[in-house]
Amino acid sequence: MNNGVVDPMLEIEDLVHCYGAVTALNHVSVSAAKGEFLTILGSSGSGKTTMLRVISGLEMPTSVRRLRIGGQDVAHLPAAKRNCTTVFQSYALFPHMNVVENVAYGLKIRKVNGPDALKEARRALAMVQLEGKADRRISQLSGGERQRVALARAVVTQPAVLLLDEPLGALDERLRQDMQIELMELQRSLGMTFVYITHSQEEALTMSDRVVLMSHGRIVQSGSPLDLFDRPESRFAAGFMGYENILEATLVAQDGTLGTVEFPGGLRIRGVVTADGLKVGGTVAIAIRAERISPVSAEAPESVEATLTNRIYRGKYTDVTVATGAGPLRLRSWHGVGSETEEIRRVGWNTTDAVIFAAQ
Amino acid sequence: MSEMQQTAGASGTATVGRQGFLRALAGRLADMNFAVTVILSTWFVLVIVPIVVLFAFSFFTTVQFRTVYEPTLDTWIGLFSSGRWEVTLRTLRIALTVTVIELLIAFPFALWLAKGCRSGTVQAVCLAMLTIPFFLDMSSRTIVWRAILGQSGLVNTMLLGTGLVDTPVEWLLYSEVAVHFGMVVSLFPPMVMPIYLAINLIDDTLLEASNDLGASPWQTLSRIIIPLSLPGVMAGVVFCLGPALAAWVEPGMLGGGFVNLISNSIESAYSALRYPVVAALSAFVILLLLLLLAAMYLIARRFGDPSSVSVFRG
C-alpha cells in the first residue's frame, strides 16, 4: 500500500514491537512522503503512540526490517541522533527555562552559538504568534500558548519529520479547531513531513493528506480522508468512521465493484463493494451513513419502504428511526428543512453511499 | 476572610445552600489561619527564642563559675585569642570535605534510585535501608567501628592474616580518616533523601523531550536534571553540613582525642560551666553555617541560568 509514495521521508517496513507478552505493533508498514501530513488514527491501545515512540527512538522496536528517516537508516540510532522531533501530548516544556530558552534548547544542544540560537528561537516563536511572550515563564502561559511553544521548540531545528502526539488533546473545543487550521498552515509553509497521532476522526479528516487507521497493533486501512470516510473496507473502519447503519445481509451478486445484497425478507439493496475476496452467497455487511438517507417518493431508484418509529430532535439536526425490510435504519436531517414533519413512506439514498464489506 | 464574606454577600441571588457552603469554607480558612499561627508561634518560642537567648548569653562572662549579666565582648575576643582559629578551620575543612564526599556519592545514587532503577522492589528495599540508621542511637552505631577499625579489630586482623601488612594499620582509628569515615556513613541518608525526592519529581517526559531534541545523556544531566534537582541538593547540603559542623559523636569516639573540633570545645566549656563560651561557640557554628549557605546560594545562582535558581526561590 506504500508503493505510491515518492521521495519518502519516513519508511517503516514490517515493524513489530512487544511489551513483554503484549504485542503492541504487529507487522506494521508505513511510509510518508516529503511534505505529507500523515495521520495515524486509532483508539487508545491501538498501538499508535507506540508507533510514534518507535519512530522517535524513545522506544527500540522488537524487530523491524527497515526504519528510515529522510533516507537515513535509523533503526539502531538513539533518539538524540534521529532527524525528527516530537511534540508531546503533555508538551514537556522545561519548567526552569523561559519560553525562548525552551525553544532555543535544541539549537544550543547543536552548539549553535547563544545569540544566533536566541534569534532563531524568536523567529520560530514569531511563526506561532508568540514573539511577545518570549521572556515569560512557562507557568505564565495558557494551555494553547504552551502548545505553540512546544511546536516552535520542535520545528526550530528543522527536522525531516515532525511527530505530534495528540497535541490538541488537552485544549478546549474552540481552541482545538483554531489550532487545527494553524497546524495545517504551518505544515504547508514549512513543507515539513508531519506524522500526527490522534483518536479523533474529525481531526484526522480535517488536516491530513493521508490517514492510517490502526486497531490492536495493526493497520486496518490507509488512504485519503475521503477514502476512509466514504469507502471503509471493514466493519471496524465503518464503525470508527461513524457509520450509523451497519446491517448484515447475504451477497447475491457482484459485478465489478457493484454488489447486491439480500435481506432475510427478500429485500435487495445495491452498494459499492470495498473489500476484496467476498464470496457470492456469503454473509456480508452493508453500511450507510444516516445523513445520506432521506425520505423519497416511490419512483426513486435506491429506496425501500419505511415506517416511522422514532423522531428525536437534537438541536442542529433531527434523528429519525424507521423500520424497513432491511431492519431499523437511522436517518439524519438538518433541523428546519421542509420534509422534517412530513410522513415517511419510503427512504432512499445514492447507490454509491452504500458500502459492502465482510461481515466481520 | 472578609473577601469571602463579600463574595457571599455580593451574589444576592445565591441560594442559602451556597452561602452555607461559603461560610463553611470561610470558617475552614479561619481555622487554618489559626493553626498556622499556633504552629509558627510555637516554633518561634521553642526554636527561635532559645537561639536568641543563646546569642545574648555569648555577650556575658563567667567569674568563678557564676555568670555575670553585663554585656561585654570579652567572650568573643577570648574565643579567637585562645587559638581556636585552628579548631575552627579544622572543623570547617572536615565538614566541607564530608559534605563534598557525600554529594559525590549521594547524587549518582539518588539519580539511579529515582530514574535508573526499574524495579519497584529494589527501590523500596533501598529506601527502607536508608531509614535503618534512624532506628539506632548514633553513639551505638559509631562505637561499633572501634571494634572494626581498631589495632586488633576486624580489618587489621584480616590484613595481618592475609599477610598484606606486617604491622597493624594505625591510621584506621583515632585519626581524621576515621572521623571522616564515621561522618560520611552517618550523614549519607540525610544527603540522599532530599536529592532522591527532587529527582523523583522530575517528569520522565522532560528527559524524553531533552533526548528527543538531540541532547546526549550528559547534556540532559547538566541542563535538565541538575538544575531541576537543585532544591533537593541544597536541602541535602543543609542536612549534611549542619550536623557535620556540630559533629560530636564521631570526633569523640573515632578521633580518640586527636581530632579536636568546635563541638569538643563546646563540650569542654560546658563541663567547666562556662556558659557564655558555650553560647558564643554555638552561635559561631550557626553563623558559619549561614555564611556557607549564603556562599552556596551565590554559587548556585552563578552555576545555572538565573531561572534555575528561582526553582528554590519559589
UniProtKB/TrEMBL annotation, chain A:
Protein name as catalogued: ABC transporter ATP-binding protein
InterPro entries on file: AAA+_ATPase, ABC_SmlMolc_Importer, ABC_transporter-like_ATP-bd, ABC_transporter-like_CS, Mo/tungstate-bd_C_term_dom, P-loop_NTPase, Transp-assoc_OB_typ2
Gene3D superfamilies: 2.40.50.100, P-loop containing nucleotide triphosphate hydrolases
Keyword field contains DNA damage: no
SUPFAM superfamilies, per the entry: MOP-like (SSF50331), P-loop containing nucleoside triphosphate hydrolases (SSF52540)
Stretches assigned to the ABC transporter domain: 10-241
GO molecular function, one term: ATP binding
UniProt organism field: Shinella pollutisoli
UniProt keyword DNA-binding, yes or no: no
Record's keyword terms, sorted: ATP-binding, Nucleotide-binding, Transport
Family per record: Belongs to the ABC transporter superfamily.
Pfam families per record: ABC_tran, TOBE_2
